[in-house]
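This entry is retained here.
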Amino acid sequence: MNIKPVTAIGFLGTQLDSGMGAGRWQKWRPSVALCQQPGQPVAQLELLYTGERHRRLAECVQGDIASFSPATDVRLTLLPIADPWDFGQVYSALYDWAHGYAWAPDEWQYWVHITTGTHVAQICLFLLAESRHLPGVLAQTSPPRRWGTGEPGQLSLIDLDLSRYDAIARRFEAAQRDAVAFLKSGIATRNARFNALIDEIERVAVRSAAPILLTGPTGAGKSFLARRMAQLKRERKLISGQFVEVNCATLHGDGAMSALFGHKKGAFTGAASDRAGLLKSADGGVLFLDEIGELGPDEQAMLLKAIEEKRFYPLGSDREVGSNFQLIAGTCRDLRREVAAGRFREDLFSRINLWTYDLPGLAARPEDIEPNIDHLLALHASEQGRMARFHPEARSAFLRFAQSEEAAWRGNFRDLSSSITRLATLAEGGRITQAQVEAETARLRWLWARQEPESGSESGPENSPESNPESAPAAADWPARLLGPEKAAALDLFDRLQLAAVLPVCAQSASLSEAGRRLFAQSRQQRKAVNDSDRLRKYLLRFGLSWEQIRQGMAGGVKP
Protein backbone atom coordinates (compact mmCIF):
# COMPACT_ATOMS: atom_id res chain seq x y z
CA MET A 1 0.00 0.00 0.00
CA ASN A 2 1.43 3.37 -1.04
CA ILE A 3 1.09 5.82 1.90
CA LYS A 4 1.51 9.46 0.98
CA PRO A 5 4.03 11.48 3.04
CA VAL A 6 2.70 13.92 5.65
CA THR A 7 2.84 17.70 5.62
CA ALA A 8 1.82 19.18 8.98
CA ILE A 9 0.68 22.80 9.39
CA GLY A 10 0.52 24.55 12.73
CA PHE A 11 1.35 27.60 14.81
CA LEU A 12 4.38 27.84 17.04
CA GLY A 13 3.21 27.56 20.65
CA THR A 14 4.76 30.56 22.34
CA GLN A 15 3.88 29.05 25.72
CA LEU A 16 3.59 25.30 25.14
CA ASP A 17 6.66 25.12 22.86
CA SER A 18 8.72 27.56 24.97
CA GLY A 19 12.04 26.80 26.61
CA MET A 20 15.55 26.86 25.23
CA GLY A 21 17.59 25.48 28.15
CA ALA A 22 18.67 21.89 28.76
CA GLY A 23 15.49 21.26 30.77
CA ARG A 24 13.30 21.71 27.72
CA TRP A 25 13.78 18.03 26.84
CA GLN A 26 11.96 17.07 30.03
CA LYS A 27 9.01 19.25 28.98
CA TRP A 28 6.22 18.18 26.63
CA ARG A 29 6.25 20.48 23.60
CA PRO A 30 3.37 19.91 21.10
CA SER A 31 5.18 20.98 17.90
CA VAL A 32 8.15 18.78 18.78
CA ALA A 33 5.95 15.87 19.91
CA LEU A 34 4.06 16.04 16.60
CA CYS A 35 7.24 14.97 14.83
CA GLN A 36 8.09 12.27 17.39
CA GLN A 37 5.06 10.05 16.81
CA PRO A 38 6.13 6.46 16.20
CA GLY A 39 5.10 5.01 12.88
CA GLN A 40 3.73 8.34 11.61
CA PRO A 41 6.71 10.41 10.41
CA VAL A 42 6.15 14.02 9.41
CA ALA A 43 8.02 14.76 6.19
CA GLN A 44 7.32 18.53 6.24
CA LEU A 45 6.28 20.88 9.03
CA GLU A 46 4.96 24.30 8.07
CA LEU A 47 5.62 26.11 11.35
CA LEU A 48 3.82 29.46 11.43
CA TYR A 49 4.75 32.17 13.92
CA THR A 50 3.82 35.82 14.55
CA GLY A 51 6.30 38.59 15.29
CA GLU A 52 10.08 38.74 15.02
CA ARG A 53 10.34 38.36 18.77
CA HIS A 54 9.37 34.69 18.36
CA ARG A 55 11.89 33.89 15.62
CA ARG A 56 14.55 32.64 18.08
CA LEU A 57 12.09 30.20 19.68
CA ALA A 58 10.94 29.02 16.24
CA GLU A 59 14.56 28.35 15.20
CA CYS A 60 15.17 26.46 18.46
CA VAL A 61 12.17 24.19 17.79
CA GLN A 62 13.37 23.76 14.20
CA GLY A 63 16.80 22.66 15.44
CA ASP A 64 15.40 20.29 18.07
CA ILE A 65 13.22 18.52 15.50
CA ALA A 66 16.22 18.20 13.18
CA SER A 67 18.26 16.57 15.97
CA PHE A 68 16.01 13.53 16.25
CA SER A 69 14.23 13.62 12.88
CA PRO A 70 16.67 14.92 10.26
CA ALA A 71 14.31 13.79 7.47
CA THR A 72 11.68 16.30 8.61
CA ASP A 73 11.84 19.57 6.67
CA VAL A 74 10.76 22.31 9.10
CA ARG A 75 9.78 25.46 7.23
CA LEU A 76 9.43 28.65 9.26
CA THR A 77 6.87 31.18 8.06
CA LEU A 78 6.35 34.63 9.59
CA LEU A 79 2.71 35.70 9.26
CA PRO A 80 1.83 39.44 9.26
CA ILE A 81 -0.32 39.34 12.41
CA ALA A 82 0.06 42.20 14.88
CA ASP A 83 -2.57 40.90 17.31
CA PRO A 84 -2.95 37.07 17.46
CA TRP A 85 -6.27 37.55 19.31
CA ASP A 86 -7.82 39.62 16.48
CA PHE A 87 -10.05 37.28 14.48
CA GLY A 88 -10.02 39.42 11.34
CA GLN A 89 -6.22 39.65 11.26
CA VAL A 90 -5.61 35.98 11.95
CA TYR A 91 -8.21 34.67 9.50
CA SER A 92 -7.09 37.02 6.71
CA ALA A 93 -3.41 36.12 7.17
CA LEU A 94 -4.16 32.38 7.20
CA TYR A 95 -6.49 32.66 4.21
CA ASP A 96 -3.89 34.54 2.17
CA TRP A 97 -1.20 32.02 3.12
CA ALA A 98 -3.43 29.06 2.19
CA HIS A 99 -4.45 30.72 -1.09
CA GLY A 100 -0.79 31.09 -2.11
CA TYR A 101 0.35 27.63 -0.97
CA ALA A 102 1.20 24.97 -3.58
CA TRP A 103 -1.19 22.22 -2.49
CA ALA A 104 -0.68 18.75 -3.96
CA PRO A 105 -3.29 16.46 -2.35
CA ASP A 106 -2.56 13.68 -4.86
CA GLU A 107 1.03 13.51 -3.59
CA TRP A 108 0.73 14.56 0.08
CA GLN A 109 -1.57 14.08 3.05
CA TYR A 110 -2.04 17.17 5.20
CA TRP A 111 -2.42 17.53 8.97
CA VAL A 112 -3.67 20.78 10.49
CA HIS A 113 -2.24 20.96 14.01
CA ILE A 114 -4.71 22.75 16.32
CA THR A 115 -3.08 22.18 19.72
CA THR A 116 -0.87 25.26 19.61
CA GLY A 117 -1.63 28.93 18.95
CA THR A 118 -4.23 31.21 20.48
CA HIS A 119 -7.86 30.11 20.68
CA VAL A 120 -8.55 32.51 17.81
CA ALA A 121 -5.84 30.86 15.70
CA GLN A 122 -7.26 27.41 16.47
CA ILE A 123 -10.74 28.50 15.45
CA CYS A 124 -9.44 29.96 12.20
CA LEU A 125 -7.55 26.76 11.39
CA PHE A 126 -10.73 24.76 12.04
CA LEU A 127 -12.83 27.00 9.79
CA LEU A 128 -10.34 26.88 6.94
CA ALA A 129 -10.05 23.11 7.21
CA GLU A 130 -13.81 22.68 7.33
CA SER A 131 -14.21 24.84 4.21
CA ARG A 132 -11.39 22.88 2.50
CA HIS A 133 -9.16 25.94 2.08
CA LEU A 134 -6.76 23.77 4.10
CA PRO A 135 -7.34 20.37 2.43
CA GLY A 136 -6.43 18.15 5.35
CA VAL A 137 -7.53 16.53 8.58
CA LEU A 138 -7.23 18.09 12.01
CA ALA A 139 -4.36 16.85 14.17
CA GLN A 140 -4.56 17.16 17.93
CA THR A 141 -1.68 16.22 20.25
CA SER A 142 -1.94 15.57 23.99
CA PRO A 143 0.76 15.10 26.65
CA PRO A 144 1.74 11.72 28.11
CA ARG A 145 0.06 10.60 31.31
CA ARG A 146 3.27 11.07 33.29
CA TRP A 147 5.21 14.31 32.96
CA GLY A 148 8.95 14.37 32.49
CA THR A 149 9.19 10.99 30.75
CA GLY A 150 10.24 12.46 27.42
CA GLU A 151 7.46 10.54 25.66
CA PRO A 152 5.68 12.28 22.75
CA GLY A 153 2.16 11.73 24.08
CA GLN A 154 -0.86 10.96 21.93
CA LEU A 155 -1.90 12.05 18.43
CA SER A 156 -5.52 12.14 17.27
CA LEU A 157 -6.57 12.74 13.67
CA ILE A 158 -10.04 14.18 13.02
CA ASP A 159 -11.55 14.11 9.53
CA LEU A 160 -14.22 16.81 9.17
CA ASP A 161 -15.95 14.89 6.36
CA LEU A 162 -18.98 13.80 8.41
CA SER A 163 -20.01 11.31 5.74
CA ARG A 164 -17.16 9.11 6.99
CA TYR A 165 -18.78 8.77 10.40
CA ASP A 166 -21.68 6.35 10.09
CA ALA A 167 -23.15 7.05 13.51
CA ILE A 168 -23.21 10.80 12.92
CA ALA A 169 -24.60 10.32 9.42
CA ARG A 170 -27.39 8.13 10.82
CA ARG A 171 -28.28 10.82 13.35
CA PHE A 172 -28.46 13.45 10.61
CA GLU A 173 -30.63 11.16 8.48
CA ALA A 174 -32.94 10.46 11.41
CA ALA A 175 -33.24 14.20 12.13
CA GLN A 176 -34.13 14.86 8.50
CA ARG A 177 -36.74 12.08 8.51
CA ASP A 178 -38.28 13.59 11.64
CA ALA A 179 -38.38 17.03 10.01
CA VAL A 180 -40.00 15.65 6.85
CA ALA A 181 -42.57 13.80 8.94
CA PHE A 182 -43.24 17.03 10.84
CA LEU A 183 -43.95 18.90 7.59
CA LYS A 184 -46.39 16.14 6.65
CA SER A 185 -47.95 16.09 10.17
CA GLY A 186 -46.81 12.52 10.55
CA ILE A 187 -48.99 11.33 7.65
CA ALA A 188 -47.40 8.33 5.92
CA THR A 189 -47.96 9.62 2.41
CA ARG A 190 -47.30 7.16 -0.42
CA ASN A 191 -47.14 9.38 -3.50
CA ALA A 192 -43.49 9.31 -4.63
CA ARG A 193 -43.56 12.74 -6.28
CA PHE A 194 -45.13 14.38 -3.23
CA ASN A 195 -42.69 12.71 -0.84
CA ALA A 196 -39.72 13.88 -2.94
CA LEU A 197 -41.22 17.38 -2.99
CA ILE A 198 -41.55 17.55 0.81
CA ASP A 199 -38.05 16.12 1.23
CA GLU A 200 -36.59 18.98 -0.81
CA ILE A 201 -38.76 21.57 0.94
CA GLU A 202 -37.38 20.38 4.28
CA ARG A 203 -33.79 20.92 3.13
CA VAL A 204 -34.59 24.35 1.74
CA ALA A 205 -36.53 25.37 4.84
CA VAL A 206 -33.57 24.77 7.17
CA ARG A 207 -30.82 25.95 4.83
CA SER A 208 -32.21 29.00 3.03
CA ALA A 209 -33.79 32.30 3.99
CA ALA A 210 -34.67 33.15 0.38
CA PRO A 211 -38.32 33.58 -0.70
CA ILE A 212 -40.30 30.41 -1.37
CA LEU A 213 -43.25 30.21 -3.78
CA LEU A 214 -45.95 27.56 -3.24
CA THR A 215 -48.36 26.98 -6.10
CA GLY A 216 -51.29 24.65 -6.46
CA PRO A 217 -55.08 24.54 -6.39
CA THR A 218 -57.19 25.84 -3.54
CA GLY A 219 -57.15 23.44 -0.61
CA ALA A 220 -53.89 21.74 -1.62
CA GLY A 221 -52.30 22.68 1.72
CA LYS A 222 -50.19 25.75 0.92
CA SER A 223 -50.98 27.70 4.08
CA PHE A 224 -50.66 24.60 6.26
CA LEU A 225 -47.24 23.78 4.80
CA ALA A 226 -46.05 27.38 5.21
CA ARG A 227 -47.06 27.30 8.88
CA ARG A 228 -45.21 24.01 9.45
CA MET A 229 -42.09 25.38 7.73
CA ALA A 230 -42.10 28.35 10.09
CA GLN A 231 -42.51 26.04 13.09
CA LEU A 232 -39.59 23.92 11.88
CA LYS A 233 -37.41 27.02 11.51
CA ARG A 234 -38.32 28.14 15.02
CA GLU A 235 -37.45 24.74 16.47
CA ARG A 236 -34.05 24.89 14.75
CA LYS A 237 -33.52 28.41 16.19
CA LEU A 238 -33.36 29.83 12.67
CA ILE A 239 -35.99 32.48 13.38
CA SER A 240 -37.12 34.26 16.51
CA GLY A 241 -40.08 36.26 15.18
CA GLN A 242 -43.69 35.46 14.45
CA PHE A 243 -45.40 33.60 11.64
CA VAL A 244 -47.63 36.21 10.00
CA GLU A 245 -50.24 35.11 7.46
CA VAL A 246 -52.52 37.14 5.21
CA ASN A 247 -54.72 36.33 2.22
CA CYS A 248 -53.93 39.02 -0.34
CA ALA A 249 -57.37 38.58 -1.94
CA THR A 250 -58.79 40.37 1.10
CA LEU A 251 -56.60 43.46 0.63
CA HIS A 252 -57.85 46.39 -1.46
CA GLY A 253 -56.92 50.07 -1.95
CA ASP A 254 -55.37 52.04 0.90
CA GLY A 255 -56.33 49.21 3.20
CA ALA A 256 -53.93 46.91 1.36
CA MET A 257 -50.99 49.31 1.71
CA SER A 258 -51.82 49.97 5.33
CA ALA A 259 -52.22 46.29 6.22
CA LEU A 260 -48.94 45.29 4.61
CA PHE A 261 -46.66 48.26 5.21
CA GLY A 262 -48.36 50.09 8.06
CA HIS A 263 -49.27 53.78 8.16
CA LYS A 264 -48.77 56.95 10.11
CA LYS A 265 -51.58 58.68 11.91
CA GLY A 266 -53.53 60.87 9.47
CA ALA A 267 -52.14 59.17 6.36
CA PHE A 268 -55.69 58.78 5.06
CA THR A 269 -59.25 59.22 6.25
CA GLY A 270 -59.79 56.90 9.17
CA ALA A 271 -56.10 56.57 10.10
CA ALA A 272 -56.61 57.62 13.69
CA SER A 273 -53.35 56.13 14.99
CA ASP A 274 -50.08 54.62 13.81
CA ARG A 275 -50.11 51.05 12.51
CA ALA A 276 -47.03 48.82 12.27
CA GLY A 277 -48.24 46.66 9.37
CA LEU A 278 -47.79 42.95 8.67
CA LEU A 279 -44.29 43.22 7.22
CA LYS A 280 -43.05 44.86 10.40
CA SER A 281 -44.90 42.34 12.54
CA ALA A 282 -43.03 39.58 10.72
CA ASP A 283 -39.61 41.05 11.58
CA GLY A 284 -37.29 38.17 12.47
CA GLY A 285 -39.92 35.64 11.41
CA VAL A 286 -41.85 34.39 8.40
CA LEU A 287 -44.42 36.29 6.32
CA PHE A 288 -46.86 34.14 4.35
CA LEU A 289 -48.65 36.02 1.58
CA ASP A 290 -51.35 33.70 0.29
CA GLU A 291 -52.76 34.48 -3.16
CA ILE A 292 -49.94 36.90 -3.86
CA GLY A 293 -51.18 37.22 -7.43
CA GLU A 294 -54.10 39.31 -6.11
CA LEU A 295 -51.85 42.21 -5.03
CA GLY A 296 -52.17 45.46 -6.95
CA PRO A 297 -49.25 47.02 -8.88
CA ASP A 298 -48.38 49.53 -6.14
CA GLU A 299 -48.26 46.85 -3.47
CA GLN A 300 -46.14 44.67 -5.74
CA ALA A 301 -43.59 47.47 -6.25
CA MET A 302 -43.27 48.18 -2.54
CA LEU A 303 -43.07 44.49 -1.71
CA LEU A 304 -40.19 44.04 -4.15
CA LYS A 305 -38.23 46.81 -2.40
CA ALA A 306 -39.01 45.33 1.02
CA ILE A 307 -37.78 41.87 -0.04
CA GLU A 308 -34.58 43.14 -1.62
CA GLU A 309 -33.62 45.88 0.83
CA LYS A 310 -35.44 44.78 3.99
CA ARG A 311 -36.66 48.37 4.26
CA PHE A 312 -39.83 50.18 3.19
CA TYR A 313 -41.90 53.32 3.78
CA PRO A 314 -45.12 53.04 5.80
CA LEU A 315 -48.06 54.82 4.21
CA GLY A 316 -47.85 58.55 4.90
CA SER A 317 -44.30 58.37 6.33
CA ASP A 318 -41.10 59.91 4.99
CA ARG A 319 -38.93 57.68 7.15
CA GLU A 320 -38.05 54.10 6.26
CA VAL A 321 -38.48 51.21 8.68
CA GLY A 322 -36.64 47.90 8.57
CA SER A 323 -37.96 44.35 8.75
CA ASN A 324 -35.88 41.22 8.22
CA PHE A 325 -38.46 38.57 7.33
CA GLN A 326 -38.51 35.49 5.14
CA LEU A 327 -41.25 35.50 2.54
CA ILE A 328 -43.33 32.46 1.67
CA ALA A 329 -45.83 33.22 -1.09
CA GLY A 330 -48.79 31.13 -2.21
CA THR A 331 -50.94 31.26 -5.32
CA CYS A 332 -53.37 29.15 -7.29
CA ARG A 333 -52.65 31.23 -10.40
CA ASP A 334 -50.00 30.62 -13.02
CA LEU A 335 -47.84 33.68 -12.36
CA ARG A 336 -46.04 33.19 -15.65
CA ARG A 337 -49.32 33.96 -17.42
CA GLU A 338 -49.99 36.83 -15.06
CA VAL A 339 -46.60 38.32 -15.97
CA ALA A 340 -47.29 37.84 -19.70
CA ALA A 341 -50.67 39.54 -19.29
CA GLY A 342 -49.08 42.48 -17.45
CA ARG A 343 -50.93 41.80 -14.20
CA PHE A 344 -47.88 40.76 -12.18
CA ARG A 345 -44.46 42.39 -12.12
CA GLU A 346 -41.80 40.34 -13.85
CA ASP A 347 -39.06 41.57 -11.49
CA LEU A 348 -41.09 40.54 -8.45
CA PHE A 349 -41.82 37.14 -9.95
CA SER A 350 -38.10 36.65 -10.63
CA ARG A 351 -37.34 37.58 -7.03
CA ILE A 352 -39.79 35.15 -5.41
CA ASN A 353 -39.43 32.10 -7.64
CA LEU A 354 -35.96 30.96 -6.59
CA TRP A 355 -37.66 28.06 -4.79
CA THR A 356 -40.98 27.18 -6.46
CA TYR A 357 -43.01 24.13 -5.46
CA ASP A 358 -46.23 23.02 -7.12
CA LEU A 359 -48.39 21.16 -4.62
CA PRO A 360 -50.54 18.53 -6.36
CA GLY A 361 -54.26 18.34 -5.68
CA LEU A 362 -55.82 15.42 -3.84
CA ALA A 363 -57.17 13.82 -7.02
CA ALA A 364 -53.60 13.56 -8.35
CA ARG A 365 -52.56 11.64 -5.20
CA PRO A 366 -55.17 8.87 -4.86
CA GLU A 367 -52.73 6.64 -2.96
CA ASP A 368 -52.48 9.31 -0.24
CA ILE A 369 -56.21 9.46 0.45
CA GLU A 370 -56.20 6.47 2.83
CA PRO A 371 -53.40 7.71 5.16
CA ASN A 372 -55.03 11.14 5.19
CA ILE A 373 -58.33 9.57 6.24
CA ASP A 374 -56.57 7.88 9.16
CA HIS A 375 -54.91 11.18 10.10
CA LEU A 376 -58.21 13.08 9.99
CA LEU A 377 -59.95 10.45 12.13
CA ALA A 378 -57.16 10.66 14.72
CA LEU A 379 -57.32 14.46 14.63
CA HIS A 380 -61.09 14.41 15.16
CA ALA A 381 -60.66 12.04 18.10
CA SER A 382 -58.08 14.29 19.77
CA GLU A 383 -60.22 17.40 19.29
CA GLN A 384 -63.60 15.91 20.23
CA GLY A 385 -62.48 13.24 22.68
CA ARG A 386 -64.49 10.67 20.74
CA MET A 387 -63.00 7.95 18.54
CA ALA A 388 -64.70 6.96 15.28
CA ARG A 389 -63.76 4.03 13.03
CA PHE A 390 -64.99 2.67 9.72
CA HIS A 391 -66.70 -0.69 9.46
CA PRO A 392 -64.39 -2.70 7.13
CA GLU A 393 -66.96 -2.84 4.32
CA ALA A 394 -67.76 0.84 4.75
CA ARG A 395 -64.07 1.73 4.61
CA SER A 396 -63.59 -0.24 1.40
CA ALA A 397 -66.64 1.41 -0.18
CA PHE A 398 -65.51 4.92 0.74
CA LEU A 399 -61.98 4.30 -0.55
CA ARG A 400 -63.31 2.93 -3.86
CA PHE A 401 -65.28 6.09 -4.37
CA ALA A 402 -62.62 8.45 -3.05
CA GLN A 403 -59.93 7.01 -5.34
CA SER A 404 -62.15 6.71 -8.41
CA GLU A 405 -62.38 9.00 -11.40
CA GLU A 406 -65.80 10.11 -10.15
CA ALA A 407 -64.29 11.77 -7.08
CA ALA A 408 -63.32 15.25 -8.27
CA TRP A 409 -62.11 16.56 -4.88
CA ARG A 410 -62.45 20.11 -6.19
CA GLY A 411 -61.81 21.52 -2.74
CA ASN A 412 -58.96 19.05 -2.26
CA PHE A 413 -58.14 18.43 1.42
CA ARG A 414 -60.85 20.82 2.57
CA ASP A 415 -63.42 18.55 0.93
CA LEU A 416 -61.86 15.42 2.44
CA SER A 417 -61.61 16.98 5.89
CA SER A 418 -65.25 18.07 5.79
CA SER A 419 -66.33 14.63 4.61
CA ILE A 420 -64.50 12.76 7.39
CA THR A 421 -65.78 15.25 9.97
CA ARG A 422 -69.36 14.58 8.92
CA LEU A 423 -68.86 10.80 8.98
CA ALA A 424 -67.11 10.82 12.38
CA THR A 425 -69.67 13.16 13.94
CA LEU A 426 -72.66 11.09 12.82
CA ALA A 427 -71.10 7.72 13.69
CA GLU A 428 -73.26 5.97 16.32
CA GLY A 429 -71.15 4.22 18.89
CA GLY A 430 -68.05 5.39 17.04
CA ARG A 431 -68.86 3.09 14.08
CA ILE A 432 -69.06 4.50 10.53
CA THR A 433 -71.44 2.27 8.61
CA GLN A 434 -71.88 1.52 4.95
CA ALA A 435 -75.22 3.37 4.94
CA GLN A 436 -73.43 6.51 6.18
CA VAL A 437 -70.81 6.12 3.47
CA GLU A 438 -73.51 5.82 0.80
CA ALA A 439 -75.18 8.98 2.09
CA GLU A 440 -71.85 10.84 2.23
CA THR A 441 -70.80 9.83 -1.30
CA ALA A 442 -74.21 10.98 -2.57
CA ARG A 443 -73.66 14.31 -0.86
CA LEU A 444 -70.22 14.67 -2.44
CA ARG A 445 -71.66 13.86 -5.88
CA TRP A 446 -74.28 16.55 -5.33
CA LEU A 447 -71.64 19.04 -4.16
CA TRP A 448 -69.40 18.56 -7.15
CA ALA A 449 -72.31 18.44 -9.59
CA ARG A 450 -73.35 21.93 -8.40
CA GLN A 451 -69.91 23.14 -9.34
CA GLU A 452 -70.33 21.98 -12.93
CA PRO A 453 -71.54 24.57 -15.48
CA GLU A 454 -75.28 24.88 -15.54
CA SER A 455 -77.27 23.12 -18.20
CA GLY A 456 -77.89 25.26 -21.25
CA SER A 457 -74.88 27.51 -20.67
CA GLU A 458 -72.12 28.00 -23.20
CA SER A 459 -69.93 25.49 -21.39
CA GLY A 460 -72.65 23.04 -20.39
CA PRO A 461 -72.63 19.38 -21.34
CA GLU A 462 -75.19 19.76 -24.10
CA ASN A 463 -72.85 22.26 -25.73
CA SER A 464 -69.94 19.78 -25.83
CA PRO A 465 -68.85 18.43 -29.23
CA GLU A 466 -70.23 14.99 -28.38
CA SER A 467 -73.79 16.25 -27.82
CA ASN A 468 -73.95 19.35 -29.99
CA PRO A 469 -71.31 19.44 -32.73
CA GLU A 470 -72.68 22.66 -34.14
CA SER A 471 -71.75 24.62 -30.96
CA ALA A 472 -68.01 24.19 -31.59
CA PRO A 473 -65.65 23.15 -34.36
CA ALA A 474 -66.11 19.55 -35.39
CA ALA A 475 -63.83 17.21 -33.44
CA ALA A 476 -62.14 16.14 -36.69
CA ASP A 477 -61.14 19.77 -37.31
CA TRP A 478 -59.47 20.29 -33.96
CA PRO A 479 -56.03 18.82 -34.88
CA ALA A 480 -55.85 21.20 -37.84
CA ARG A 481 -56.90 24.10 -35.63
CA LEU A 482 -54.03 23.51 -33.22
CA LEU A 483 -51.31 22.06 -35.46
CA GLY A 484 -52.15 23.88 -38.68
CA PRO A 485 -53.60 22.28 -41.83
CA GLU A 486 -50.25 21.10 -43.21
CA LYS A 487 -49.04 19.35 -40.02
CA ALA A 488 -52.46 17.81 -39.43
CA ALA A 489 -52.61 16.50 -43.01
CA ALA A 490 -49.18 14.90 -42.54
CA LEU A 491 -50.43 12.77 -39.66
CA ASP A 492 -51.44 9.15 -40.14
CA LEU A 493 -55.18 8.68 -40.16
CA PHE A 494 -54.88 6.66 -36.92
CA ASP A 495 -53.04 9.49 -35.11
CA ARG A 496 -55.35 12.15 -36.50
CA LEU A 497 -58.51 10.33 -35.38
CA GLN A 498 -57.04 9.56 -31.95
CA LEU A 499 -55.95 13.16 -31.44
CA ALA A 500 -59.38 14.38 -32.56
CA ALA A 501 -60.90 12.30 -29.75
CA VAL A 502 -58.39 13.41 -27.11
CA LEU A 503 -58.55 17.16 -27.71
CA PRO A 504 -62.27 17.64 -26.88
CA VAL A 505 -61.74 15.85 -23.56
CA CYS A 506 -58.87 18.22 -22.80
CA ALA A 507 -61.00 21.22 -23.72
CA GLN A 508 -63.76 20.12 -21.34
CA SER A 509 -61.44 19.40 -18.39
CA ALA A 510 -60.37 21.90 -15.78
CA SER A 511 -56.84 20.55 -15.51
CA LEU A 512 -54.35 18.21 -17.12
CA SER A 513 -54.85 15.74 -14.26
CA GLU A 514 -58.63 15.70 -14.72
CA ALA A 515 -58.27 15.10 -18.46
CA GLY A 516 -55.80 12.28 -17.78
CA ARG A 517 -58.14 10.61 -15.31
CA ARG A 518 -60.94 10.64 -17.85
CA LEU A 519 -58.79 9.38 -20.73
CA PHE A 520 -57.03 6.65 -18.73
CA ALA A 521 -59.96 5.65 -16.51
CA GLN A 522 -59.56 1.91 -17.15
CA SER A 523 -55.82 1.41 -17.51
CA ARG A 524 -55.02 3.49 -14.41
CA GLN A 525 -56.76 0.88 -12.24
CA GLN A 526 -54.17 -1.71 -13.27
CA ARG A 527 -51.19 0.49 -12.34
CA LYS A 528 -49.44 0.56 -8.97
CA ALA A 529 -48.19 4.11 -9.54
CA VAL A 530 -50.69 6.47 -11.20
CA ASN A 531 -49.60 9.67 -12.92
CA ASP A 532 -52.33 10.48 -15.42
CA SER A 533 -51.15 14.03 -16.07
CA ASP A 534 -47.65 12.84 -16.98
CA ARG A 535 -49.00 10.20 -19.38
CA LEU A 536 -51.17 12.76 -21.11
CA ARG A 537 -48.39 15.34 -21.19
CA LYS A 538 -46.03 12.88 -22.92
CA TYR A 539 -48.74 11.92 -25.42
CA LEU A 540 -49.36 15.56 -26.38
CA LEU A 541 -45.62 16.18 -26.71
CA ARG A 542 -45.55 13.60 -29.54
CA PHE A 543 -47.41 16.19 -31.57
CA GLY A 544 -45.55 19.20 -30.20
CA LEU A 545 -48.54 20.25 -28.09
CA SER A 546 -48.71 21.50 -24.52
CA TRP A 547 -51.64 21.91 -22.14
CA GLU A 548 -51.31 25.71 -22.35
CA GLN A 549 -51.47 25.62 -26.16
CA ILE A 550 -54.63 23.54 -26.05
CA ARG A 551 -56.36 25.85 -23.57
CA GLN A 552 -55.45 28.91 -25.61
CA GLY A 553 -56.22 27.30 -28.96
CA MET A 554 -59.62 26.12 -27.85
CA ALA A 555 -60.57 29.40 -26.25
CA GLY A 556 -62.97 30.09 -29.06
CA GLY A 557 -64.47 26.63 -28.85
CA VAL A 558 -65.61 24.53 -25.93
CA LYS A 559 -64.58 25.84 -22.53
CA PRO A 560 -64.17 23.73 -19.40
Observations:
- The chain has four domains: 6-160, 169-358, 362-450, 461-553.
